[in-house]
Amino acid sequence: MVKPKDFTKLHADFNAPISQRHDCGQWCAPLNDGQPVCCTVDNAIPIVDKAEWKSLKARTDLWSKYKAPKGDKHAQKIVDELPDTCLAIECKGAALCERDNRSLACRSFPFYPFIDKKGRVIGLGYYWDFEDRCWVLSNLEIVEPEFVTELLHAYEFLFFKDPDEFDVFKGQSTQQRRTFSKLGRDIPLIGRDGELYKIPPYSDEIIPAKPSDFGAHGPYVSDKAYKQAIKELS
Ligand code: SF4
Ligand code: SF4
Predict the structure, then answer these.
(1) How many structural domains is the chain composed of?
(2) Which stretch of DSSP H or E encloses residue 154?
C-alpha cells in the first residue's frame, strides 16, 4: 500500500520540467485570463491519492480540499465519482506556486504513462481533451528526455507500491486507443527514449514519427490563429 513517505520520495525524484528552454505557460495563459490552463480548477481539478494529500499537508499549506462551486454539475460529478482513496484538491494559484510542493498530477500534466495491450509501459500518452488549450500538445518535440524518464520512474514506483494505479492507467491508455482509433487518428506517443512515435488506429505497431505527423490544434495551428484568438478576447 502506498504511504505518504512514498509520495515524498516520488516528489523529490520527479522534478524535471517538461522543457528547460520553453515556458509553456506563457503560451496558454494569455488565452485563459492570464493563468496557465493546468493551474486553474475551471480546466483541470487536481486529484490526489489520500497518501499524497498527507505528504503534501505535512510540508505546505499550499493546498486545500476542493469544493465544487454551487450549480457546477460537471465539477460536482467529478468529485462525487472519485474513489474513496482519492481527493480533489485546489492550490492557491500560479502566482503562489511552490515548485517542490506540486502534486504528481501537476508534475505530469498533460501526460500520463501509456500502457500497451501486453501491459508494458511504453512511453507517454496524453490527455487529449486539452489539445485545444494546452500549447505543449501542439509542440510535442519540446518535451525533454529527462522529463520522460523521471515521469516514468515516478509512475513505475507508484505501480510497484499500488498495483491498482497500474490498472487506472491501463484503462486510460485503452480509452485513448479506442478514441483515436474511432477518429482514425494515430496516437502520438513519446517513447521511453524521449523520441516521437505514432500508433496507427486499431494497431499495436509503434512507428517512429516526426512533429509534422501530428500537427497542431486550436489556436496553436499558426501564429495568425493564435493572434486572432488573443484579439477575440480583448
Ligand atoms: S502544460 Fe499545457 S496547460 Fe499547462 S502550462 Fe504548459 S501549455 Fe499550459
Ligand atoms: S501547485 Fe503549481 S503547478 Fe500545481 S496547479 Fe498549483 S500553480 Fe499549478
Answers:
(1) 1
(2) helix 145-161
